[in-house]
Amino acid sequence: MIPLDLPANYPRIRVVQSFQELATTRFADGINALCWPRTLAGDFAEVVERLGSGEGIITLDEARLRRLPVSAAGRMAIDQMLEDRRLLSALDLDPVLNCIYGYPRDENPGPVPTDVFSFHADSATVETYTWLCTYHGLPSEGLRNDEAIRRVDLPATRAELLRLFGGPDDARFLDWLNEHCYDLHYAPTAQARPFSFGWGNLWRIAVECPDSPVPPCIHRAPESGPEHPPRLLLIS
Prior knowledge:
Blueprint: E1 13-15, H1 19-24, E2 33-36, H2 44-51, E3 57-59, H3 62-67, H4 72-89, E4 96-100, E5 129-136, E6 141-143, E7 148-150, H5 155-165, H6 171-179, E8 186-188, E9 195-196, E10 202-206, E11 218-220, E12 231-235
Parallel strand pairs: 1-2
Antiparallel strand pairs: 2-10, 3-4, 4-12, 5-10, 5-12, 6-9, 6-11, 7-8
């Protein structure tokens, strides 16, 4: 089990004690991430084993999970994941359960990688949040906002982006950065210490959106591939 590993003396993360508190707490006073820490019963590794080999990202529906020939401990794990999905669905969200064998990577990342392995902020056109929980496999990593710098603000990177854009550093350039999601990706500072979202913990994090009272929570997906176990993830 990968434990919760929050950065010390970091005021942007608030730990809550229930799903109700997780769902109803407003982001304010700089807080941009809420975490409900949990120790979950059940054998999630067995669920992954019974799902078998695969590629890419496989969405798991209830029927497929219920058909798996698992032990009582495996059944507990399945019940837990489906209950979490039910809780989020009751909030009019659209949560999905995924078994992730591997994520696609940028084939030609250029000066700013934009795949999920890069520290980034999620974005939306209206106020919303990202919810996620890793049940098995490597969990997401977070980065303190004060230990991150937008890649587009790094002088060498910005100069290369301007060269690719082929124009001046003006409003049209800013729109171009946004269209390509370059402005959502961050580089850790030299002293940065990324932290783990942990296993079994349910998170709700702020995204980049108009009129947001707080900055977005910066995070990334863990490494994936044959050398890493498949990841069971709930996300909305």
